[in-house]
Write a structure and sequence with these properties.
heterodimer; A: 6-stranded mixed beta sheet; 11 strands; 62% strand; B: 7-stranded mixed beta sheet; 0% helix
């Protein structure tokens, strides 16, 4: 079983749609959870950071962490064509907080 | 807004040659990292660096690789005797290291080994 699994997509939605992106993981030691956005041939850009379980909202973005299910989600409301990118989940454990383990990324296209 | 900067953006090298990839982390950050992403694959952790020494490294980071902070601003990754399979995007990242792990990434150096 892969440590972090992420549906690679591609996912295509119309402008204004609500987008749900998900990752599952197997390592129960993970406590720090991040979502990054990556445009083609660019570096990952940090979108959301959460610690342990719960929700965090920032503008149109909401991150959810359910540690009991080992499942994290990123919701994008009112999606825009500029949201088209690859979204990467990443996580790390308390014992190795500096080392991020990434998902494979979900490619999202928001159609105007 | 402060950012992590990497140079060069693209490096082509012949197999067997040594390359040095350079990074300038965000100025008040204390932890520095190198990650790589082979085309079409996951971003993979290589090494973390704190207080002028390696704090963690992955299995990928073997004797072929080394890191250095030669001065107060630069952070370098050296790859000795490059192989074809070293072709990838190499990302530098940094964070403050004070109670959180939000890592900020540079734009990457695309290394092509021919």
């Amino acid at each position: 079983q892969k440590e972090v699994e992420q549906d690679p997509g591609p996912l295509s939605v119309p402008e204004g749609a609500i987008v749900s992106l998900n990752c599952t993981y197997s390592n129960s030691a993970f406590q720090y959870f991040m979502w990054y956005r990556q445009y083609s041939r660019k570096g990952p850009e940090l979108l959301m950071y959460t610690y342990s379980s719960g929700n965090k909202e920032d503008g149109r973005f909401t991150a959810q962490v359910d540690k009991s299910s080992k499942y994290i989600s990123l919701f994008i409301r009112d999606s825009q064509p500029s949201d088209s990118a690859t979204y990467l989940c990443a996580m790390s454990s308390a014992g190795s907080a500096r080392q991020l383990t990434f998902g494979s990324g979900t490619q999202l296209t928001v159609l105007p | 807004e402060p950012e992590v900067t990497q140079t060069p953006s693209h490096q082509v090298t012949q197999m067997g040659q040594e390359v040095i990839l350079r990074c300038v982390p965000i100025s008040n950050h204390l932890y520095f990292y190198w990650y790589r992403q082979i085309l079409g694959q996951k971003v993979e952790f290589l090494v973390s660096f704190y207080n002028n020494e390696i704090s963690e490294k992955s299995e990928i980071f073997d004797d072929q690789f080394s890191v250095e902070r030669p001065d107060g601003s630069n952070f370098t990754l050296k790859i000795r005797s490059t192989k074809l399979e070293d072709s990838a995007m190499y990302f530098c990242a940094s964070n403050t290291g004070t109670g959180n792990t939000e890592a900020f990434f540079g734009q990457g150096t695309r290394l092509t080994v021919v």
